[in-house]
Recover the amino acids of this structure.
């Protein structure tokens, strides 16, 4: 579910947008002016902002700029009642991703929001295609694993196993959890193949390096965490 912050001082318009978005399954917070928007923005995480340009206490364009200076990634859609090229340009220059001229059809607003959220999903993947833990780096696109700048060759299963650890750092992963996620099977306590694979992986990412990364938690499983040296 996506969280949307709607900044709009006109009660009727705010209620109309809010109702429509909620019906589409979005969670919506409404702020009636710029100051309220900034307060709410700092206390919660939003996936998208809808900003009206004409606000009682500040210009939506200035608000956009203020938010951009704190958060470069969140998509921002500006609403403007003034169909003026100047306004659009200023909004986009201030960091808005798109704008919509009032009055608009709700379906158009929805289409713009969905497009921005889809684009955002791609951007996040672009920026986060690398998992890192201490001096260990795993690139999900190129499948290159490096520790302290040295490339490490892993088999496909070792790679998936390491990815699982790196997606859950400092959390104890049970053998059942690992079996399910890496091998897609139920764990059979009669076998020790997970321990065998964890040891293969340890040999490759720890041997010759300064510290241990994968630690055994007796009776529970394994955890990726900072080592105090070997
Ligand atoms: Ca307004």
């Amino acid at each position: 579910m996506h969280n949307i912050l709607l900044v709009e001082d006109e009660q009727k318009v705010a209620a109309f947008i809010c109702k429509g978005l909620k019906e589409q399954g979005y969670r919506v917070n409404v702020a009636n002016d710029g100051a309220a928007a900034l307060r709410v923005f700092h206390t919660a995480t939003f996936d998208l902002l809808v900003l009206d340009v004409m606000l009682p206490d500040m210009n939506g364009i200035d608000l956009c700029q203020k938010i951009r200076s704190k958060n470069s990634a969140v998509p921002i859609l500006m609403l403007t009642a003034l169909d003026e090229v100047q306004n659009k340009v200023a909004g986009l220059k201030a960091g808005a991703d798109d704008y919509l001229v009032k009055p608009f059809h709700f379906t158009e607003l929805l289409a713009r929001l969905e497009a921005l959220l889809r684009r955002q999903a791609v951007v996040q993947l672009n920026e986060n295609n690398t998992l890192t833990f201490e001096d260990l780096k795993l690139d999900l696109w190129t499948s290159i694993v490096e520790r302290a700048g040295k490339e490490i060759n892993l088999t496909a299963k070792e790679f998936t196993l390491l990815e699982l650890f790196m997606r859950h750092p400092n959390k104890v992963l049970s053998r059942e959890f690992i079996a399910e996620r890496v091998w897609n099977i139920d764990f059979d306590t009669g076998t020790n193949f997970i321990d065998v694979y964890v040891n293969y992986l340890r040999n490759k990412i720890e041997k010759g390096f300064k510290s241990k990364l994968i630690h055994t938690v007796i009776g529970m499983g394994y955890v990726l965490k900072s080592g105090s040296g070997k």
Remarks:
- The pocket of calcium ion is lined by residues 9-10, 52, 54-55 (CB under 6 Å).
